[in-house]
């Protein structure tokens, strides 16, 4: 009798688990169907294990899971992102596959394949030799003894222009509009020549080309890069201008080589970096940044800073479109108008009404 009861319990648990997996599978297939057929290849979990040599070489790790280096059958190197099994119904995974598979641009990372097998989920990307931008701009002075990881102003400018072009494409260049909502150094990957590619579309929102405003139940993004309107809706509608804000904050960090919300000046107090750099420009003072080595560097950095300060205007309507941002970065610094002093929004000092789970660090 006990044996029969045990078999019934096992059958019930397996049936419930099958239903849950079936629901997730149905949701995924529905998303794929709603966005049309995908050219992206679907891999089995066994194939994922083979291409990563059983996950031998880890490239990085985050809240989403881990990234491993792998090789396809033709020996082409790839980066394989394996998501944690605790990601619920896999909404972010489905979102990423549906959005990034619709893109084709030199400044957007290429999704080569994916795996959706029960609770096993993985994404196969082109391999980017230099990894993320983050490791090149957030360094301690002790790490710069040989000065081999510090990017020149010319390279920083090249990266800023490339990311701007990628965002311009997402907002206006493809057959759907994609709002990324998580632009930050960690999500910018660099190839062997330091040309940038936007990655990680787990928080992206997709909408028709004729729409520019999206609705969201809660905030999404990473503290320090989130536009004010994404957290407090009375600042304005959530739109592509939210990505413009994040881009501006990121470029300021590239210029300063430090996180915007955690800068010590004269070892006296914590200063919000956009405040500090705006004041320097306002008083026409030397920016005194370690990356500046000649007059050409000064011009490039000033150009990036002025453009960034326009991008982080609190009112979304005052921020430029990304095509205008590209023009500002590629034009002459003398033609740039000095931005009005924005109400510089510091998330580190502002209470966030959204639950921590809606903010993806």
What would you say this structure looks like, in words?
- It contains 10 helices and 12 strands.
- With 361 residues, the protein is an alpha+beta fold.
- It has 2 domains: 93 residues, Phosphorylase Kinase, domain 1 (2-Layer Sandwich); 225 residues, Transferase(Phosphotransferase) domain 1 (Transferase(Phosphotransferase), domain 1, Orthogonal Bundle), CATH 1.10.510.10.
- The strands form 4 sheets. Strands 1-5-6-4-3-2 form a 6-stranded mixed sheet, sandwiched between helices.
- The longest helix has 33 residues.
- The C terminus is likely disordered.
Instruction: Say what the CATH topology of the largest domain is.
Output: Transferase(Phosphotransferase), domain 1
Radius of gyration from CA coordinates: 22 Å
Q: Trace the largest sheet across and list its strands.
A: 1-5-6-4-3-2
CATH architecture of the largest domain: Orthogonal Bundle
Uncertain stretches: 141-147, 263-270, 347-361
Largest sheet: 6 strands, mixed
What order do the SSEs take from the amino end to the carboxyl end, as H and E?
A: HEHEEEHEEHHEEEEHHEEHHH
- Tally of individual domains: 2
CATH class label of the largest domain: Mainly Alpha
**Could you state the CATH homologous superfamily of the largest domain?**
Transferase(Phosphotransferase) domain 1
- Tell me the number of strands: 12
Shape: globular
Helix coverage percent = 25-40%
Secondary structure class reads alpha+beta
End-to-end Cα distance, whole Å, is 52 Å
| Averaged pLDDT | 80
Work out the helix count: 10
Beta content: 5-15%
